[in-house]
Design a protein that fits this description.
147 residues, 6 helices, three-stranded mixed beta sheet, alpha+beta, globular
């Protein structure tokens, strides 16, 4: 089967089995919801969409699935300030990226995960500090609001 690309749900199932963890409908539904959108979804929004995708899944089960997938490095979250916390795929399920949030209009934009690498290296070299901006949004003013 070389040349075939596995879906995020298939990769998740493999990784869970490798760890001896259960492959549950809620865990797969969370991954399917996140893989199917470019939006920045809250836990509540993921819960709603997971229930639509797999009727019978309870919201509390989805929240537990988010926590578990986070522990396994397959899902991560980003704090968007007043806009709350959103979740997205992580690890081998998604390209590393950072988030920019406009303080004027609230728009959130994804940027390449290596954009701050020179700053990371400088902070490590000069301060011994390991910068980890992946779980927060970098706040500023977008080009539309700056105009």
């Amino acid at each position: 089967m070389s040349g075939t690309t596995k879906s995020p749900a298939e990769v998740t199932a493999e990784r869970l089995r490798e760890r001896g963890e259960r492959v549950t409908p809620a865990r797969l539904a969370v991954v399917e919801v996140l893989a199917g959108t470019d939006e920045h979804l809250s836990a509540e929004q993921i819960g709603e969409r997971a229930e639509e995708l797999r009727p019978g899944i309870h919201r509390a089960t989805v929240y537990r699935a988010l926590d578990a997938l986070g522990e396994f490095g397959l899902v991560t979250h980003v704090h968007l300030g007043r806009a709350g916390t959103t979740y997205h795929l992580a690890g081998e399920l998604a390209a590393p990226h950072l988030h920019l949030r406009c303080s004027e209009c609230g728009t959130v934009v994804d940027v390449a995960g290596d954009i701050l690498d020179p700053v990371r290296r400088k902070l490590l070299r000069e301060q011994g500090f390991r910068l980890a901006p992946e779980q927060v949004a970098l706040v500023g003013v977008c080009k539309d609001c700056s105009a």
